[in-house]
Amino acid sequence: MRTVFFGTPELAVPSLDAVAGNHELAAVVCRPDRPQGRSKKLVPPPTKVWADAHNVPVLQPVKLNDGTFESWLRAQAPEVCVLAAYGRILKQPILDVPRHGFINVHPSLLPRHRGPSPIQTAILCGDAATGVTIMRLDAGMDTGDILLQEEEPILPDDTTASLSERLAGRGATLLVRALALIASGKAIFTPQDHPRATTTRLFEKKDGQIHWDASARDIHNLVRAAVPWPIAHCAFKGQTCRIHHTQAVDESAAAPPGEVVRVEGDRVCVATGDGLLAIHTLQPPGKRAMAMADYLRGHPIAVGNRFEDL
User: Fold this and answer.
1) How confident is the prediction along the chain (310 residues), in pLDDT tens digits per residue?
2) Domain end: 179, 196, 213, which one?
3) Is the Cβ–Cβ distance between 226 and 205 less than 8 Å?
C-alpha cells in the first residue's frame, strides 16, 4: 500500500523502517528541527535522519489546519497513513484523506494510559505490564477502534529508556501484521471500553522532583520513569543532585524521610515515608552520573546526612 508516515522521536524509527520494508513509502512527516544544547544548534528528529539516509521526502509542517497541509497530503495519494509518536493532534479533514484512514502505534494497552506519556506513566504507576496497541485514529485523544494489541511485561529495573526500546520493536512487528490485515481486507476493528480509560499528561521537568515522604517503592518508580528525562532530582548538602538508579528496600527505619540510615560499599540507604531507598547511581552538580562506590571515594556520606526536597 502507498503510505505516508507520521512520527518524530527514536521510538518511531522501528515502525518507520518496518513500513518502508513492506509498503510503498511516499513521504515522512515529522516535527520541525529543534534547538539543543548551549549552542542552540538545530537538530533534526530521528525520523528525519532516517528519511534523509534513505532518500525519502520529508515534510515538517508548522501549521496543519490551514488547508495547505491537507492539500499536500492529498497530492501524495496515500492509501493509508501510519502514525507513531508524531506529537501533534490531527483534525478530521486530515484523517479523512487516506482511504484506509490513519493507523496509530500506541505504546500502552488502550484504553489504559491514553495521551502523551504512556510509558513513563506505566512505570510511575508501578504497572506489572504494558503493551502496544494498533488502532485507527479518530478526532479524540487515543479513542479510536483497536485492531491489534500485544502485552509486554515491565521488568523490575526497567526505565522509560529500556522499556521504550522494547515497545518500539514490538510495535513495529505488530504494525506489519496490522497493515497486512488492512491490505487483505481482513482487518476487524473493535471499539475501546471507554469507561475503563485512563489519561496521561505530558511530563515536565518538575515531575522529576523527589519527595522523600513518599514510599520507597513510589520514589523508585519515579527514578525509573524519569530516565532518560528529566532524571529524578533532589537537594543534598545544599546542591541539586540527580539520582539515576535505586532499589526499594522493604525495611523500616526510625529516621525521618530523607535521612541517611546506612552507608554501604556500593549504595547509600535513605529513609522514606515507607521503607528504605537504596541509591546506587548518583550525579552531583556539573558532573557525570557515577556508581555510588565511585562517588563515595571522593565525597563521603555519613549516617545522619539528609537528602531533601527541592
Assistant:
1) 999 999 999 999 999 999 999 999 999 999 999 998 778 899 999 999 999 999 999 999 999 988 999 999 999 999 999 999 999 999 999 999 999 999 999 999 999 999 999 999 999 999 999 999 999 999 999 999 999 999 999 999 999 999 999 999 999 999 999 999 999 999 999 999 999 999 999 999 999 999 999 999 999 999 999 999 999 999 999 999 999 999 999 998 889 999 999 999 899 999 999 999 999 999 999 999 999 999 999 999 999 999 999 9
2) 196
3) no
Q: Which of 122, 273, 288 is nearest to 210 (CA)?
A: 273
Q: Could you tell me the CA-to-CA distances from 9 to 239, 240, 244 in Å, in that order?
A: 32, 29, 22
Q: Which three cell numbers stand for residue 25?
A: 513509502
Assess whether 7 and 141 both reside in one domain.
yes
Radius of gyration of the chain (CA): 22
**Domain check: are 97 and 10 in the same one?**
yes
Q: What is the pTM of this model?
A: 0.95
DSSP 307: E
Sign for the CA dihedral angle at 250, 253, 259, 265 comes to: negative
The dihedral region occupied by 264, where left means phi > 0, alpha psi between -120 and 50, and beta the remainder, is beta
CATH of the domain at 272: 3.10.25.10
Q: For cell 535522519, what's the residue? A: 49
Of the residues 145, 168, 196, the one at which a domain ends = 196
87: Cβ contacts below 8 Å, ≥ 6 apart: 8, 9, 31, 116
Tell me which H or E stretch contains 240: strand 239-249
* Total domain count, the chain: 2
**Half-sphere exposure at residue 74, Cβ-oriented, CA atoms within 13 angstroms:** 9
Residues in the chain: 310
3-state secondary structure of 79: coil
Residue 298: domain span = 205-308
Q: What is the DSSP letter of 145?
A: P
Please tell me whether residues 146 and 248 are part of one structural domain. no
